[in-house]
Specification:
Elements (H helix, E strand, L loop, with lengths): L4 E8 L3 H12 L4 E5 L25 H14 L3 E4 L3 E7 L2 E6 L2 E10 L3 E3 L15 E2 L2 H4 L7 E5 L3 H10 L5 E5 L9 H9 L3 E4 L2 E9 L2 E9 L8 E5 L2 E4 L3 E3 L29 E3 L11 H25 L1
Parallel strand pairs: 1-2, 1-6, 2-3, 6-17, 8-15, 9-10, 9-15, 10-11
Antiparallel strand pairs: 4-5, 5-6, 7-16, 12-13, 13-14
């Protein structure tokens, strides 16, 4: 059996949290390796335009921002192993064995930033028009729909809060929910009812996102009401915002660290999990809000604490 490679900091996931952690680790001269099963950047590279990340007064394309994150970390010495699938993490003494494509390496500390994925509707047009009218982030994309018609699909707090946010920009906001009552907090519902731009479409499910000229043109809705069950209507729109929840990408952390009821990794405010030396940052964690700037901050905090953990081990030898 070949000798294991030894690294200081393994960063699993190449989104904003992971890339920031890699930057901090590399600048501190720790041997820092980023494992990403795709290309660095995370979900931000699927976002058409980002207007709420500091330092870019007129905004920046999501793929460009992701590339800048990557270049900065790499320029300071972080090593990237793209298209590398981490299969497992297991503690070994005070270190961690990280298995990648069947090979094992030893890491002094591990930061997991595998993120969360928005739940999909699974209907025709959803994938085809992602980034061309279909979005999962009103905060990111809302300003692009100034004086345009949009819909929000969902019935929880997040969906209604995003509808209120979109009402600041859009001419019309259509709130679509499959049931006859929302699950959102009562006061948020009241705000939505008071907002003249928001129109409710209860007991309706989206059956298809329809496009025209490579962009969203509307949504085909189907009634779930008993009296009109199965009846269809077409709602002309410029944008579709989907808020039916997110799923954490937590497979590596199952049966390893403490999770909340929804499967998000529980951390403190510096990224520590219930296992010493194992950190989490970004959308994978139970911390809010889930934005690029907060993910970056969490990545920085986790790396800073991981470096202290590594130094403490070295001093103890």
């Amino acid at each position: 059996m070949s000798e294991r490679e030894i690294i200081d900091m393994a960063v699993i996931g190449g989104g904003p949290a992971g890339l920031t952690a890699a930057l901090y680790g590399a600048r501190a001269r720790a041997k820092t390796v980023v494992f990403e099963k795709g290309l660095p950047g995370g979900q931000i590279i699927t976002t058409e335009w980002v207007e709420n990340y500091p330092g870019f007064p007129t905004g920046i394309a999501g793929p460009d921002l992701g590339q800048l994150f990557h270049e900065q970390a790499e320029n300071y010495g972080a090593e990237f192993r793209n298209f590398s699938e981490v299969e497992s993490i297991r503690p070994e003494g005070l270190d961690f064995v990280v298995t990648v494509s069947g090979d094992e390496l030893l890491a002094r500390a591990v930061i997991v930033s595998t993120g969360a994925v928005p739940k999909k509707l699974g209907i025709p047009g959803e994938a085809e028009f992602t980034g061309r009218g279909v979005s999962w982030c009103a905060t990111c994309d809302g300003a692009l729909y100034r004086d345009k018609r949009v819909c929000v699909i969902g019935g929880g707090d997040a969906a209604l809060q995003e509808a209120l946010f979109l009402a600041k920009f859009a001419s019309d906001v259509h709130l679509i929910h499959r049931r006859d009552a929302f699950r959102a907090t009562e006061c948020i519902q009241e705000y939505c009812h008071e907002e003249s731009k928001i129109q409710m479409h209860m007991s309706r499910i989206p059956a298809e996102i329809v496009g025209e000229d490579s962009k969203v043109a509307g949504v085909r809705l189907v009634s779930t009401e008993e009296a009109t069950k199965g009846e269809e209507e077409f709602l002309p729109l410029d944008g579709v915002f989907i808020f039916i929840g997110v799923d954490p990408v937590n497979e590596l952390m199952l049966d390893l660290v403490e999770l909340d009821d929804w499967g998000f990794v529980i951390t403190d405010n510096i990224g520590r999990t219930s296992v010493p030396g194992l950190y989490a940052a970004g959308d994978l964690t139970n911390r809010e809000p889930k934005q690029v700037v907060t993910a970056a901050g969490q990545g920085a905090a986790a790396a800073f604490e991981a470096l202290r953990f590594i130094d403490a081990k070295v001093c103890a030898i």
